[in-house]
Amino acid sequence: MAKKLVVKDRERCIGCYSCMFACTRTWYGAVGIEKSAMRVKNYPGVEGAFSVRVCQACKDPECAAACPTGSLRVSKRGFGVELVKELCIHCRKCIKACAANALQWDEQEQVPIVCHHCGVCVCYCPTEVLAMEEVG
Amino acid sequence: MYRMLSVDLTNGKIEEKDVTELFERFVGGKGVLTYLAMQEITADLDPFSETSPIYFAIGPLNGYFPSMSKTVAMFRSPLTGDLGESHAGGRLHLAMLSANVHVLRIVGKSEKPVYLSIDGDDVSLVPCSSLWGRSALATERILREKEDQRKGKKSIVRIGPAGERLSPIAVVTVDSSRHFGRLGLGAIMGSKNLKAIVISGSNCQKIEDRRSYQLLYDRIFQELVESENTYKYRDLGTAANVIPLSKIMGLPTRNFSQGFFESAQNISGEHFADQLLAQQISCAHCPIGCIHMGVLRELFADPHMYKTLKTSYDHELIYSLGSNISVSKAEEVLKLIHFVERQGWDAISIGVVLAWATEAFQRGLITPEEIDGLALNFGDTETYLKVLENIARGKNEFYRDLEKGVHHCAKKYGGEDFAICFNKNEAPGYMTGPDAFVGYAVGVRHSHLDCAGYSVDQKYLGRSEDIEREVKTMYEEGVWRVLTNSLVMCLFARGVYTPQKVVECLNVVGFDIDEPKMNQIARTVHGMKYLLKERLGFKFTNLSLPKKLTNVYTSRGKMNESDFEKRVELYFKFVEEDKRLASRAL
Fold it and tell me: Is the ipTM of this complex over 0.85?
């Protein structure tokens, strides 16, 4: 069975961002966090509480449904999405459509950043916030 | 390319400069800033003048490797008049890298309160009179919400009311309870009417050799997560030191009267963890997670109205607002820390001031009018909170003086013998013996972290002293830390980043460097720092040991003045060689 990325235990997060660094490093060969397909966010005024947002691995994704060109479509895996970059018209409709606010946007390339559910972020989480889980 | 962004607060002028050549010569962080400061900080420069510069810098390994998570600040210290340098964690290093700002230089003075906003290439000064007077905590809360629509991780760097009042012991607070704590950078920001800096960007640096980078990264990451070297910082945090130090009579108690604190257990890392620890958090890109957030639930109205404070604690704060003023309840320490955090004082400095004030009051040096009716007693938290409140309100001249540092107070009111400072900087929380004290005195920034004398002391416990070897060990550690502070590495990762590993890391990011060359650069920068310090009035021959410390038992017994002087002189000789090296390099 294919596996998807999930947030197993959010409250354990220490906010080190190792996950986002790993994602950016692996998929873009770059140093930083802004190309990461997931986000660890801290809330204004709440010391040490983090919101961890990952692609929800939808089987019928709102983001893909909102794409006017078919650039963002359901992945061959059967859940989550993949991007045909050439078709993207940079309209951001996909970003707005994701109710979980989980789909990220690449500011430089002006395209969505899709999660491949590869699990590399899980490998670098020192407190086991993230996990891979079988898709039901 | 390494880039410096200069902002002039007087006229809003913004300039960029390529500083790649400086990074090649001095690695980054502390090295580059020392060179820049040498060009600009002159003997007659008033720290509060328009021309007084503030620099922030990261180094070549920030972002690239885990626990390379610090930013260095340099300035002329309003507390000591000497060169000021302070380090902070948080997200600042990452935000600077993402904004492609390796060095940030701020000069000038804004007419009205502003914050500096750096959002990638978009740099502006935003008027913020309504934020003036806000606590360091409220300011972050407000700005994080106000700037929430930004892309990219923000770092919020700000001062509290103490900085606005130009207290020379005011800190600059970074994100969640990290600080440029020492030597009064907060007052310089205050003097410039600069309440905060909000910085972010979305730049991602491409990696050249992905394979070797990844392999090296994994080795380091794994070690940081699993090794014994970092376990202590994650588990109990620096507060793990409290009990062991007290056991060896190295925990300053009641204004450095003794090193054993009878209530150490109650303010220990173990006690905090068991009773008050809410969670650990970390700086950006650091898997250690050393920041320990304590939570204090307080009943404020009967029968069941509660409020909850969340504040981070560390060894230094537990010493300065705990054992050194004899506060023996962890909850009370947290309360004091929280007050200090909101005002934005250096917790070490304000604690040393409270301890001095208590002793001065008990010896009759302070009149009842000056103290405005309070009676200071070691261990009396309620009164200490009132004292802090009075300082914050600027109640009278005495209270206004208290936030000017212990040296200033002792000069004016007496009690210099028991004003525990070195080169005018209030002492950190170790009285382990001669090496700790000498380290505070001779160190480049008068911090216990400069050459780790406290750790050398502990190695010599129960052994006969070997002055020359001890000083040499401290000097070598001092030089090595010049280099790690140029990368800019968190010292908690020092057990993992050996010189050999640092060379490997630097090679991967394109530096043509080996260990001898690295040592040469470190020594050069070390020499440069003292050349600059001496230009600003620092003299090894002026260094002295507070008289009280010659009369108390440290972990290594009593210390006398001549021993102190001998060690300082030995250190001075090493520095002389580095100064020659620096002069040749400049």
Answer: yes
